[in-house]
């Protein structure tokens, strides 16, 4: 049998007290079972949790917000509430075991789904610009707790990113802002973004709270999607395959050889060449080099129709043609090819047997053209005519001298005008007409020897047109941009028409040339037309047409030309706007906006905001920044521009004079600085510059002077900040050993804002109270005074406790 002495019993009691104290201090007593063991509850919902003791116990109870729920028996106690509204509640179930408190905490998460989730673009309104980066902002309002929040980002319905807040400890409702940096592609046009918030609470499933769909319009500088070359047939309509992708729509211009030209419409051979196509909008410009190749059938240049040569001499029959592709040429007689070449070929003839009609043929895959030449090979004709060819203007003097070096029986001239009878005893005879008026005259000099010799003088009679005029066909008044029109050039009394070349000019630039195939040699009236398409750049330009008689090397140089009076073109086109943002000072009127605008007739301007029409004289206030639209309209059409107007003004504070809130949760969200452009803000406390405070701590309490400054001025505001925080008890001994009968004092000091109330208690019996600091004094301590004493500090933000185990030794 083991006998315990009084001393041994005392030591054993002390050891049991220490062990039980350690168990109690762990706040996870193994003798207590909670059902449920943890709690996830929506704010305001009812709650019921039971606490079961595995042994008989004393004072089994729940401690919840300083209120105890005592058990009706020694093994079970239930805590219930109809409406849980304490965000930071920390229920503790406890009991006394061998005079020592044993406790277990109930983990509680009180949650609230967000009131609203919204998405926006940070510091930007209006379309986004391709190739730039922007921040999107997701606002999650009034939810709790923060650490279980997950935010999901979506683009076009597809997830792109998510974020959690596991390192945040805030339990009360708060607002959170999450940002996402995006890069806008240059090929994007319109995209949708959204964000969603979800509370992740273990295995529990909660619905996502989704934001609105953010419709984003993307503006881009022009990008060309074009072939490098274009090939088409003359007179075909140009198929514009050169697209400039841009938002807003770009203004397109064409240049050739450094000069502005119309875009192509009905192709002519003169359109072949290299073009620079430029596209410009408010966000940038682009250009594309396009090589145009216009294909057309061959055309042979006119030349002599009859060639006379002497026997034994060389003659060169030349044939020149243009065409695309380059034509193949051949000279033939009686279907026998005599010579071939490309573009230009020459046939050499030397004998009488070579006389006949020769045909030059020019061919490419688009067609062919021919020219015939009658070659007359003569023997040793003694007659010489000087000059051997005449080009004479109608009504002008014409003369040529016929000579011979041998004896004869008479010589003369046969001609429809100015003929001369046979004359003897002369070696030369001149044919002369003071005013040549026969169009198809063919003077022949003849000489009689033992036979009659003849030689014809080649004569071309021409007349400049009396009048060359230009006009539009079936149209009067202004032309409309983008439409096709026909110009007509009229020539009165001109001959010979087959030598008439028509040149079309736009300003000083030759845009087209053409000719006639009519072989009429007498006076005619002729008309030539030209198809044109109009652009706004054509407004005010002049077209002219010109008659040019190509009379060959024997004709006057330069060739005779007659030009029409200019045709002035007026082009009407719908307004064209180049948008630009505007940052006026406050009280500026809308009519002060500087327009980059063109249109014909002059456009009328109307301003709108949110589809409401505005007065042209409206003066802009500081709340008028935003997106505006102005519409320019005329009789042809209308165009609109959506522009950002940022009204600039000096800083203004919208801020309370006093600010009070909980530590780490208080921020200056209600203290706004209204300024445009954005103001730089400095903080001063006690005369010293400090950093801007985001989450206030207790040391931030005090008076602040806030100064805001931008380029338009400065403003100041005085702000008193009072930071509240829950009580904190200063640490001290956790175990105190005293002898029976001695005096003992238990001191407890706490700080907090508001000032906390303190009390000492044991087994729920309050022994002493005070503020900030209180002391429990036991003048003569007894063994019955041993136990766990609790100091509790309380203010409106919460409470804190410190426990001291008092061990009384006999």
TrEMBL record:
The keyword Disulfide bond applies. InterPro entries: ICAM_VCAM (IPR047012), Ig-like_dom (IPR007110), Ig-like_dom_sf (IPR036179), Ig-like_fold (IPR013783), Ig_I-set (IPR013098), Ig_sub (IPR003599), Ig_sub2 (IPR003598). Keywords: Disulfide bond, Immunoglobulin domain, Signal. Residues 114-197, 207-293, 298-374, 465-563, 727-805 form the Ig-like domain. Residues 1-24 form the signal peptide. Transmembrane segments: none annotated. One of its GO terms (molecular function) is integrin binding. SMART domains: IG, IGc2. GO terms for biological process: cell adhesion. Gene3D superfamilies: Immunoglobulins. Pfam families: I-set, Ig_3. This is Intercellular adhesion molecule 5. It comes from Silurus asotus.
């Amino acid at each position: 049998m083991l006998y315990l002495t009084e001393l041994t019993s005392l030591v054993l009691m002390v050891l049991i007290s220490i062990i039980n104290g350690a168990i109690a201090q762990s706040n996870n007593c193994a003798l207590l079972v909670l059902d449920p063991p943890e709690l996830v509850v929506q704010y305001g919902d009812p709650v019921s949790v039971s606490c079961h003791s595995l042994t008989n116990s004393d004072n089994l109870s729940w401690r919840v917000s300083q209120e105890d729920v005592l058990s009706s028996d020694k093994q079970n106690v239930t805590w219930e509430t109809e409406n849980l509204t304490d965000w930071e509640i920390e229920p503790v179930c406890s009991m006394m075991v061998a005079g020592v408190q044993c406790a277990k905490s109930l983990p509680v998460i009180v949650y609230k789904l967000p009131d609203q989730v919204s998405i926006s673009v940070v510091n930007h309104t209006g379309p986004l610009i391709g190739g730039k980066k922007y921040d999107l902002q997701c606002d999650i309002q009034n939810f709790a707790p923060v650490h279980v929040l997950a935010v999901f980002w979506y683009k076009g319905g597809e997830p792109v990113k998510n974020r959690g807040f596991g390192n945040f400890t805030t339990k009360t409702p708060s607002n959170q802002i999450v940002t996402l940096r995006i890069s806008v592609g240059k090929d994007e046009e319109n995209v949708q973004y959204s964000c969603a918030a979800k509370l992740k609470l273990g295995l529990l499933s909660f619905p996502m709270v989704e934001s609105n769909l953010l419709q984003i319009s993307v503006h881009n500088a022009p990008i060309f999607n074009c072939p490098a070359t274009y090939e088409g047939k003359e007179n075909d309509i140009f198929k514009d395959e050169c697209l400039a992708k841009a938002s807003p729509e770009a203004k397109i211009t064409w240049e050739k050889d450094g000069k502005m030209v119309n875009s192509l419409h009905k192709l002519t051979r003169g359109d072949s060449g290299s073009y620079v196509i430029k596209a410009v909008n408010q966000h940038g410009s682009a250009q594309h080099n396009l090589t145009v190749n216009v294909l057309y059938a061959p055309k042979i240049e006119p030349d002599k129709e009859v060639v006379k040569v002497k026997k034994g001499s060389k003659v060169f029959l030349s044939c020149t043609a243009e065409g695309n592709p380059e034509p193949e040429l051949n000279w033939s007689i009686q279907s026998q090819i005599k010579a071939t070449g490309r573009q230009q070929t020459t046939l050499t003839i030397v004998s009488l047997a070579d006389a006949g009609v020769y045909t030059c043929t020019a061919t490419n895959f688009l067609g062919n053209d021919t020219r015939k030449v009658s070659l007359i090979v003569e023997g040793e004709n003694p007659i010489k005519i000087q000059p051997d060819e005449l080009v004479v203007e109608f009504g002008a003097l014409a003369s040529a001298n016929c000579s011979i070096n041998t004896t004869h029986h008479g010589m003369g001239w046969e001609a429809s005008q100015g003929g001369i009878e046979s004359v003897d005893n002369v070696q030369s005879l001149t044919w002369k007409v003071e005013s040549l008026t026969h169009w198809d005259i063919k003077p022949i000099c003849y000489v009689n020897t033992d036979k009659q010799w003849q030689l014809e003088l080649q004569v071309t009679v021409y007349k400049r047109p009396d009048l060359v005029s230009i006009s539009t066909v079936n149209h009067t008044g202004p032309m409309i941009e983008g439409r096709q029109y026909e110009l007509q050039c009229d020539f009165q009394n001109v001959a010979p028409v087959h030598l008439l070349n028509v040149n079309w000019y736009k300003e000083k630039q030759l845009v087209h040339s053409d000719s006639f195939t009519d072989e009429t040699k007498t006076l005619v009236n002729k008309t030539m037309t030209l198809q044109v398409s109009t652009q706004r750049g054509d407004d005010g330009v002049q077209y002219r047409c010109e008659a040019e008689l190509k009379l060959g090397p024997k004709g006057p140089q330069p060739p005779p030309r007659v030009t029409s009076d200019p045709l002035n073109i007026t082009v009407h086109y719908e307004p064209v706007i180049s948008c630009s943002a505007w940052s006026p000072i406050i009280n500026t009127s809308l009519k002060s906006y500087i327009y980059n605008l063109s249109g014909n007739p002059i456009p009328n301007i109307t301003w709108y905001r949110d589809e409401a029409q505005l007065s042209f004289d409206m003066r802009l206030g500081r709340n008028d920044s935003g997106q505006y639209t102005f519409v320019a309209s005329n009789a042809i059409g209308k165009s609109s521009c959506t522009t950002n107007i940022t009204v600039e003004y000096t800083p203004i504070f919208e801020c309370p004079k006093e600010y009070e809130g909980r530590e780490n949760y208080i921020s200056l969200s209600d203290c706004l600085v209204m300024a445009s452009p954005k103001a730089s803000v400095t903080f001063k406390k006690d005369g010293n510059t400090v950093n801007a405070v985001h989450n206030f701590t207790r040391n931030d309490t005090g008076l602040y002077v806030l100064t805001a400054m931008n380029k338009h001025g400065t403003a100041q505001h005085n702000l008193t900040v009072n930071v509240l925080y829950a009580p904190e008890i200063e640490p001290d001994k956790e175990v105190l050993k005293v002898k029976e009968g001695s005096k003992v004092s238990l001191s407890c000091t706490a700080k907090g804002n508001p000032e906390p109330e303190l009390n000492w208690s044991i087994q729920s019996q309050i022994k002493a109270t005070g503020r900030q600091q209180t002391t429990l004094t036991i003048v003569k301590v007894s063994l019955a005074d041993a136990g766990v004493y609790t100091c509790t500090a309380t203010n409106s933000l919460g409470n804190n406790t410190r426990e001291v185990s008092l061990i009384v030794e006999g």
